[in-house]
Amino acid sequence: DGIERDLTPPPPVNEDVYDFDERDLRERAIGTLPGTLAEALDELEQDPKVQEALGPEITEALLRARRVEWDEYRIQITPWELERYLEMA
After folding, report:
1. Residues 77, 79: Cα–Cα separation, whole Å
2. 25 to each of 8, 21, 34, 54, 56, how far by Cα in Å?
3. ∠ CA(58), CA(76), CA(74), 5° rounding?
4. Count: domains in the chain
5. Per the confidence metrics, is the pTM higher than 0.85?
6. 54 is in which domain, residue-wise?
7. Do 50 and 42 contact (CB within 8 A), yes or no?
8. pLDDT per residue over 19-59, tens digit each?
9. DSSP category for residue 5
10. What is the average per-residue pLDDT within 57-63?
11. What DSSP character marks residue 11?
């Protein structure tokens, strides 16, 4: 996509970006990957190039299946939650 649109890549960063805060990332125009499956699915819904590559049937099936997976995941109660919040009650 970048080659087709003749985009200029950003300058290289010779630092460990893992330790950058939001301001550092913004100043250097460094994007981040989605933090959750839900965010990734939202990005897929907004990306016509990826949808075109997958095709409409696969895109819809993938979105539908992964939304179910995300809903199942997010309602799970983890051992950390039990330990942290059950003791508080």
Report:
1. 7
2. 18, 6, 14, 30, 34
3. 45
4. 1
5. no
6. 34-86
7. no
8. 999 999 999 989 899 999 999 999 999 999 999 999 999 99
9. T
10. 98
11. P
